[in-house]
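Good morning N.,

You mentioned wanting to compare the apo and holo forms, so I went ahead and generated the holo version with zinc ion. This is what I fed in:
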Amino acid sequence: MNGIIAALLEDLATVQTSEQRRWGYNRAAAAMLKLEEPLQAYLQKDGTLRKIQHIGPSSSRHSAVEKSRALRAHFLTRSQVVAALREPSSGDVSLAQYRGDLQMHSVWSDGQQTLEAIVSSGLERGYQYCAVTDHSYGLPIARGVSMAALAEQHVEIDRLNEQHRGRFRLIKGIEANILADGTVDMKEDELRRLEIVVAAPHAALRLTADQTDRMLRSIRTPGVHILGHPRGRKYASRPGVSADWPRVFAEAARHHVAIEIDGDPSRQDIDYDLAGAALDAGCLLALDSDAHSAPELGYVETAVAHARLAGVPAGRVINCWPLERLLDWARR
Ligand SMILES: [Zn+2]
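and this is what came out, ligand included:
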């Protein structure tokens, strides 16, 4: 850490326009390299630094860098995604094997796409199915659908499926919210009315306390198929849930709950690093776009890139299964 911060201070010195400020940053960098203890040892309870000789207030603010770096760890840039998709690989999942997206939102909750638009975008992308997973009624902030509205949506889905029979299938889904205690915001008999249930955390995502029990409980909930964006992290903004992930993944494997790689570029949740751990634990994976509009269906490429970097084979990705196998798994 001392080396990283010293290098940053030197970088900052380079871009200063005033000679005096340049001198100040260089002196701070030199002081950093001479510290006897790692910088963390100088951190006080309130997050500020204890006074260090030759390191002024603007230099010490850069110790916040460590924190903000963690919020950007294991995110891929678009060019890294493109490279991962291009890289010839033996046995890793590829876009060509991908048959359908299992998390997306429509105008029925906070999305901008109609169900018809989802069918046509899906067909355009060569999919065989898409799950419509609007937010559940427990999340009014995301315009969660009531059970009554959901029943109407299902009539509409049945009508579209009749129209596209043999070509494309919309799957009746929901994105249920995992509450702070690990229960899901819908009743068991309500979950049974759906073909695919994604359960995902949307609150308590900035806590540093361990939330393993919360995640374990959500996985054990009957009717949950996919643990959606498991951490709930957001790029450069919040770290998401901290948990004993190998333990969570082992439980998911035992309960046949798939772990999602959410491809929204600001989420990338879970990332390739944790996806490797999920793979080792024997988990199934779901690679989803979390699209709220038609162009966002392309977000799935980010999810596939993470899966490829983790060495996930297509057989472990439920989106690569034929429709009947997927529905059969979901029913069981
Ligand atoms: Zn969500």
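Strands lie at 100-101, 129-132, 169-178, 196-201, 226-227, 258-262, 285-288.

Happy to go through it together on a call whenever suits you.

Best,
F.
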